[in-house]
Every structure is written in C-alpha cells, then in structure tokens.
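TL;DR need structure tokens for one chain.
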Amino acid sequence: MRQMMKEFEEKPIEKKEDNRLELQSMSKKERRKIKAAELKETMEGMNPFEKVKYLIYYFKEAIIFIALIGILAGTVGKSIYDASRPIVISYAVVNCLNQLDFNSSAFEEYAKAINKYKGYQIKENINLGFTGKDNSISASQQYTNFLTLSTDDYYDIIFTDKDGADFCSRESAFLPLDSYLDKEHYDLINDRIYSAKDKDGNLQQFAIDISDTEFAKSLNIGYNDIYIGFTGDQERNIQAVYDFLDYLFK
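>> reply
TL;DR here they are.
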C-alpha cells in the first residue's frame, strides 16, 4: 500500500509541456479548452493504471481541497446536529470524589429506559467542588460559572453530598421543592426531603435524599449520602425532573 501511494505521489512523465506564455495571453475558457485537449493527448497510449495515476497527480490540489472541505462540512454538520438534539437530562455532580471512575453510562441507560436516547443528548458536568466551608470559593471562576448556568436554566438536576446541598441551598442554586414540584411528584418524595438554610438563614425544603436507590448507588460518586436538587424552571427543565423522579420512584 505504501509503495502504491509513493507511486501516486511521483510526477508521471508527461508527453508535452505547457507553453505558459501563450496560455497566459488567453481567456480562462480558452485555457481550459487547450488544457483539456492536452490532457487527453498526454494520456493517449496510457494503460488504465497510468491514466488514474496521472489524473490523481494532475488534479491533486483540487482533490485535497475538496476532501478538506468535505471533512470540514461533515464536522460542522455533526456539531450543529448534536447541538440541536433535544436534551433528555442536563446534570451536574458536586464534590464528586471519583471523577475518573464516575459511571456516566447510568444516564445513558436511564435515557434508554424512558425511550429518550436515540436522537437526544445528555449534558453533564462532574467537575464541581463546593464543600461550602471555604469562604474564598465565592471568588472562584468555577463558582461564578456554576451559579450563572444554574440561574440560566442550563442544569436540570444537581447531584451532591450534604455539604454541597447546604452550599447550593445557601447560594440559591436550588429551588424550593414545595413550590417547584406538582402535587403528584411532591408526594413521591415527601418522605425524602432534606431541608437546608437559604441565603437569609431560613430553613426550606431544597433537596431530596436518593441515597438508597439503585441508580444513586450505581453512579460511584465516592460518597454514600447522595442528594438531588433542581435549578431550572423552564418547561424543559421541569419535564426532565418529572421524568427522572418517575423513573426513580414509580
């Protein structure tokens, strides 16, 4: 194969050289016509392999250019398609202790189970470390980005430990459950509610303890007590939350 590619890279022997000065004085249409005639004349007497070799060499710049355009178009097209697919779930994990071993495939299995896998996308962020004990964290870019995305309805569900639940509650990243959930879904989780203080020091229902569920255990987050809270209040966010609660508790 390498020898064959080497042969294609080598310039074939031409039977006739272009008269460049004469061609430059002609119009583009005339030049194309003459070059086509010369190309045909040059390939006379060549066997099929020699013709292919010559044509590849003759048009190699155009072939390379077209190939690059095709690759670029395919890449851009795929990116646009991926970004346009509906989101089955957008989640974040706070204080994940096993980022390398985190079982993100659990969310793929979840999407398949609710028939929202093919044609959908899953968004994730497991690189969030907020213990809630370090006052300097409020100056970090990670902190700013997280709260911005949370208030912009980017995330549907946040998975966290107790420290992270306290942090998200205090920083208004979590929305109160009693005003967020409808009665049906509130009744599903009313014995799992974790209350924490908001930014004003008031105790509110902000998180749900899912530690004993098989799904939570399968994530391999690195801690045993796992809570979830909700940040987005758009229709898409709420539907994603309801789908997930139905999957866990129905």
